[in-house]
Design a protein that fits this description.
The chain is mainly α and 380 residues long. Helix content is 76%, strand content 1%. Strands 1-2 form a two-stranded antiparallel sheet. Helix 4 packs across helix 12. The longest helix is centred in the C-terminal third of the chain and has 36 residues. The radius of gyration is 24 Å and the shape is globular. It is a multi-pass membrane protein. Keywords: Cell membrane, Membrane, Transmembrane, Transmembrane helix.
Length: 380
């Protein structure tokens, strides 16, 4: 029974869209791109995790967060701490004053590994921390804000301020975090060299797999009763509250879920790029994530993925050709999206392409009918 339902879903419009995305990411890109460009696409997809979280948080629930870089960075730092400890074995750091600790700690005259680094010797703990640390901070922020009914532009400004504070904190605590340089020189994962082309290709496929897991979870949330409540909460929050629902709890849940998505993206970013720094935590990357969501369509999970691919590809192209103009172009792009097509690429697709798709079967049937009657008319 479930197999039949799955087949029927694959034949539906939504299922076809998922299959096309899977073909693009799993077949087309690996065959068409070399390992360097494929790794760049994998890097672009890591931002799609944060963009999908914003679809749930901003598009579905009306909660605009300008601090998703916080959770992206926390997930990335959790993974980087494990990888750095593995690269800092006593054998690899024998020339340091204190062997067995990361090099930046030795440079800053630390003589022992800080207590909060110790659990990251365990890969299992690291995987849990990638999800739990962003979710815990998101929970603290959400409870403090939503229980007091802080929302709208005030919540956006507060999350932006927290992103700036965390960036300053990471840079200031150089001996514990690597400072402005971040955590670099990451080499192996459980003894497996992640710097080779083969490893980067495999990590790309792992990233795609995790992306589809988050995509399915997000789609389930949007199609469930919870998703309908979130939508009603976005449009008529007071009416939902007067109906007996705890609006603050729903907001807390979706904000924490978006933070977990971003944390997974940050961890995959660290694995594919090989470092993590505070430049991916602050205000600018957080705003870029909002732009990815807006360009793709803030009400579409698939649109968020395509938005991440298109905007980041454009960023790479223009920053290589016109590096001094890219930030201005990014601002113009965001303004154009808000003014010209506020529903993003997904909205344009629904407005102009989907009607043509609906007419296509009738056009094909008409063409087949004309082709079948043509010999009869010629015989007469």
């Amino acid at each position: 029974m479930k197999a039949n339902l799955f087949i029927e879903w694959l034949k539906s419009r939504e299922g076809i869209y998922y299959v096309l995305l899977a073909l693009l990411l799993v077949v087309v890109f690996p065959l068409a791109l070399d390992s360097f460009r494929l790794n760049m696409v994998g890097k672009y997809l890591t931002y799609a995790f944060a963009a999908m979280g914003l679809v749930l948080c901003w598009g579905r629930s009306g909660i605009l967060s300008l601090g998703q870089g916080i959770f992206f960075g926390l997930g990335g730092y959790c993974m980087a701490m494990f990888l750095k400890l593995e690269a800092s074995s006593p054998e690899n750091t024998a020339i340091q004053s204190t062997p067995g600790i990361p090099d930046f700690m030795d440079w800053n005259q630390l003589t022992a590994l800080p207590w909060f680094w110790e659990p990251f010797h365990s890969f299992s703990f690291t995987l849990i921390a990638v999800l739990a640390v962003p979710a815990l901070l998101a929970f603290i922020i959400a409870v403090a804000m939503f229980k007091r009914r802080v929302g709208g532009v005030y919540f956006a400004i507060i999350t932006q301020a927290i992103a700036a504070i965390l960036t300053i904190l990471i840079i200031g605590q150089q001996g514990f975090t690597g400072g402005v340089n971040g955590i670099t020189d990451l080499r192996t994962l459980m003894g497996w060299d992640i710097r080779t082309d083969e490893a980067k290709t495999l990590l790309y496929f792992v990233c795609v797999g995790m992306l589809f897991v988050c995509l399915i979870v997000g789609a389930w949330v949007m199609r469930s009763k919870l998703g309908r409540i979130l939508l009603a909460m976005r449009d008529q929050e007071d009416r939902v509250r007067f109906s007996g629902y705890d609006v603050a709890s729903f907001k807390i849940f979706v904000f924490c879920l978006a933070a977990m998505f971003a944390g997974v993206g940050g961890a995959m970013f660290t694995l594919q790029v090989g470092f993590m720094s505070p430049s991916f935590v602050g205000i600018v990357p957080s705003i870029e994530m909002v732009i990815l969501c807006a360009v793709g369509g803030r009400n579409s999970l698939l649109g968020a993925i395509y938005g991440a691919l298109i905007v980041n590809a454009a960023k790479t192209f223009f920053s290589e050709s016109f590096p001094e103009l890219w930030l201005y172009g990014l601002g113009v792009l965001f303004i154009a999206v808000v003014l010209a097509f506020p529903d993003g690429l997904a909205g344009l697709y629904r407005r102009y392409v989907m009607p043509l798709e609906s007419k296509l079967p009738a056009i094909l049937r008409r063409g087949n009918a004309e082709a079948q009657t043509l010999p009869v008319e010629e015989a007469k």
